[in-house]
Design brief:
Chains A, B: InterPro entries: GntR_C, TF_FadR/GntR_C, Tscrpt_reg_HTH_GntR, WH-like_DNA-bd_sf, WH_DNA-bd_sf. Chains A, B: It comes from Nocardioides pini. Chains A, B: It holds the Pfam family FCD. The structure is a homodimer. By secondary structure, chain A is mainly alpha-helical. Chain A folds into two domains: about 20-85, Winged helix-like DNA-binding domain superfamily/Winged helix DNA-binding domain (Arc Repressor Mutant, subunit A), CATH 1.10.10.10; about 100-244, Four Helix Bundle (Hemerythrin (Met), subunit A) (Up-down Bundle). In chain A, about 65% of the residues lie in helices and about 5% in strands. Chain A has helices at about 10-15, 20-35, 50-55, 60-70, 105-130, 135-150, 155-170, 175-195, 200-215, 220-244; strands spanning about 75-80, 85. Chain A has a two-stranded antiparallel ribbon. In chain A, β1 and β2 form a beta hairpin. In chain A, α5 (about 105-130) packs across α7, α5 (about 105-130) packs antiparallel against α10 (about 220-244) and α7 runs antiparallel to α8. At the A-B interface, α1, α2, α3, α5 and α6 of A face α1, α2, α3, α5 and α6 of B. Chain B binds a DNA duplex through α4.
DNA sequence: GAAAAATGGTATGAACTCAGACCATTGCTT
DNA sequence: AAGCAATGGTCTGAGTTCATACCATTTTTC
């Protein structure tokens, strides 16, 4: 008798200590940031030394990642003062949707992301509405909203939408919340790329966005959360059918 | 003009690609699992080869971590068939609370964890109540609840409480949710160790636990969430005062 | 009692990552 | 035109981590 052995938790609690090699992780983070529109088309990434510091990675490793991005056509690099790495982002439509016969594990992760999203994004909206926002924050929010409302092409709209949601998360002032929303948005983005593009009801979505902005600006936390919940539910309903 | 340069998001979105060396991460995960009571006193950890696989780490690296745990007095190891590594856990009260003059960064992370917790744990409760639970799940939940209600000594109670919350998370069936709750509970645990132990109002806490179990078993998701929110708020109120 | 099985203990060479220094190119300032 | 500054490009040696064997000890099985 080795005393009460562990119950059911170990399998759930212990998780891989790190997904992959450092440079792969860099590629993933940067590519995600670019695809989500954190660095829009034509913008310049921070200098290598700075990025390396941000990611807690040696410059050598970061450079390997940059080389990969360059080879993938996401960025271009020029030397010398005023040079740097700019985003070119050939949107790289899903590398052959045909090949994307979605594995069961991936599908499971997607569905999980939808569930988790319906927890964290409403939570982020709640926090954002609870926070006291200065002019700069309000400006960020309204700008993000204006961009998503103005976007016409789907790819643009997708990026602007990601940026909008990430902006709300960043207004929450909670790093863990930002991280969770980033992860969820990345997966969402992946799903939308792999799934036969559905004509997202943009008008409907924009009405919800507008309501969100109003709720957050007026500090109505409860309402911001409800609105975001509805927004997540609407998106999820569309996607679940096509994935499940 | 390098096109719309990135706004405010990069700083929030890009995060360290991996905190530390692999073996440190192993130590942290295992120590956390032990302290949270996933592996209770006297229980045997899985064989090294198995743990290494779970954590996606080479056995060599895992063994370094085990050596550290052994040296720290958390576990003991015996060889041969039927041997293995058992939890001895000299509870190691906070390695000198005096030395724990808490850095500002740490304090910030703690407060962030409290905010994030109030998002994810209620969400986990909501999902758990929404899920259809079979006999085994119900048994896990009731056992976890019984243990936390029966615990007398504070250290025991703390572990049982962690297990209770992790069990609810695991009932949600959402890996991302489990991960989030695990992270939050680990930080909470750290806080409680470093803070002059307050006589948590155990009776009050247990009433809330009981209400949670009822709500989850009856499938009342909305109510489970509200109850958990209240529970988190009550805990947070106590802690914020002592940390802020 | 002998063989098998399960477990921890040890060793080796390849690959990855790091930190730091230095080089090369380009634009800005004087 | 000369020098400075900012940026990417290259090199090197040390430290980690990995994968894969193989060894040693104990219990179980026959």
């Amino acid at each position: 008798m080795t005393a009460s052995p562990a119950p059911h938790l170990p399998g759930a609690v212990l998780r891989p200590v790190r997904g992959h090699h450092a440079f792969e992780a860099c590629v993933e983070q940067l590519a995600t940031a670019i695809r989500l529109g954190v660095y829009p088309l034509g913008s310049t990434l921070p200098p290598e030394r700075e990025l390396a510091t941000m990611l807690h990675v040696s410059r050598a490793t970061l450079r390997e990642a940059m080389a990969a991005l360059r080879e993938a056509g996401l960025v271009q690099t020029t030397r010398g003062r005023g040079g740097g790495t700019v985003v070119t982002l050939k949107p790289r439509t899903p590398p052959a949707r045909a090949a994307a016969r979605i594995s069961a594990a991936r599908r499971g992760d997607w569905l999980d992301a939808l569930e988790f999203r319906r927890i964290v994004e409403p939570g982020a909206a709640y926090l954002a509405a609870s926070a006291t926002l200065d002019q700069e924050h309000l400006g960020q929010l309204e700008r993000a909203h204006a961009e998503v409302a103005a976007a016409t092409k789907t790819a643009q709209h997708r990026q602007a939408d990601s940026r909008f949601h990430l902006t709300i998360a960043s207004l929450s002032g909670s790093p863990r919340t930002v991280e969770a929303v980033t992860s969820v948005q990345a997966t969402l983005h992946e799903m939308l790329l792999a799934i036969p593009v559905l004509g997202t009801n943009i008008a409907h979505s924009d009405r919800q966005h507008a309501a969100l902005v109003r709720a957050i600006e007026s500090g109505n936390a409860e309402r911001a959360r409800k609105t975001m919940e509805q927004h997540c539910d609407d998106t999820a309903a569309l996607l679940r059918g096509l994935v499940g």
